[in-house]
Amino acid sequence: MINNKNIIKVLVLGVLLLLCNVVVGCGEKANHDKKTTEDIAKISIDEERIASHHHADDTEPHTHNHSSQSDTSKRIMNPDSIEELWIFPERKDHLGSGGMLQIYMDAESHPNASSGFAKYELGVGGALPEHKHNKTEEIAYFISGEGIVISYENAKRIETVVKEGYVWYTAPGEWHSFKNTGDTPLKLVFATIPNAKHGLLNFFKKVSASPGKASTALSAEEFATLALENDMILKPAKID
User: Fold this and answer.
1) What are the CA-CA distances from residue 89 to residues 104, 123, 155, 205, 216 (Å)?
2) What is the pLDDT of residues 120-174, one digit of tens each?
3) Which of 52, 102, 62 is CA-nearest to residue 79?
4) Is residue 10 one of the residues assigned to a domain?
5) How far apart are CA 239 and CA 217, in angstroms?
6) What UniProt keywords are attached to this protein's entry (predicted)?
7) Fewest CB atoms within 10 Å of the CB: 60, 78, 84, 142?
């Protein structure tokens, strides 16, 4: 028969071994959990470093000018706050067949804008001299009135009737003009691209006058020079 004392010793030894395994297992789990926590923390730090690195190297810098964004006068222009000019007035107190120009956006008021924008009212019987722009595109929308747009195709002069709702596009290098054939002002709004400092709107400023004031008298040579300086090339008159 097996000695009871030996049985007790075996049981005690088994219990001790079991306890040792439990203690060791708990220690390993604690170390594993600690390592896992450290690894997670390390990954989080690395991700933050990567994100910070990408933001610094790959993201465009913020260039927003919050003061200009809050300036609604640069975003919303009303008729009472824009520049109004008379183009080719007959007298300082009478516009006649000349044109009334309202400039909403140009290189002076909106230097960072891609295009200028204005409204033009050509008086009854009025017309602009035929001209072209080497660098400037124009897009016009007719609001009211009736007129004729003059353009050229394969050196052939073409006259096209325009009225409310018509859009007129002129590419750089194209000879063009328009005239009022109706009995009311021919009204249109137009954009000039690019918004150049020395461009069409600047030319109009130089040859115009504020309502009620006399415009500067220019000789034909001075007029042509001023036009050329502002990308407005006058078409040479045809000599018969």
Assistant:
1) 21, 10, 32, 13, 11
2) 999 999 999 999 999 999 999 999 999 999 999 999 999 999 999 999 999 999 9
3) 102
4) yes
5) 26
6) Metal-binding
7) 60
Tell me what pLDDT residue 173 has: 96
CA distance 196 to 115: 8
CB 164 within 8 Å of CB 143: yes
Q: Which domain holds residue 39?
A: 1-53
Within this chain, do residues 131 and 182 fall inside the same structural domain, yes or no? yes
Task: Give the C-alpha separation, 50 to 52, whole Å.
Answer: 5
- pLDDT tens per residue, range 62-106: 444 444 444 666 889 888 888 999 998 988 899 999 999 999 999
Asked if the structure places residue 20 within a domain, the reply is yes
This prediction has a pTM of 0.69
Contact between 114 and 147 under an 8 Å Cβ cutoff? The reply is no
Together in a domain, 205 and 109: yes
Tokens of 225: 């020079």
Q: Both 23 and 111 in a single domain?
A: no
Residues 157 and 229 in one domain: yes
Residue 122 in domain: yes
The count of structural domains within the chain is 2
Residues 35 and 86 in one domain: no
Shared domain for 49 and 82, answered yes or no, is no
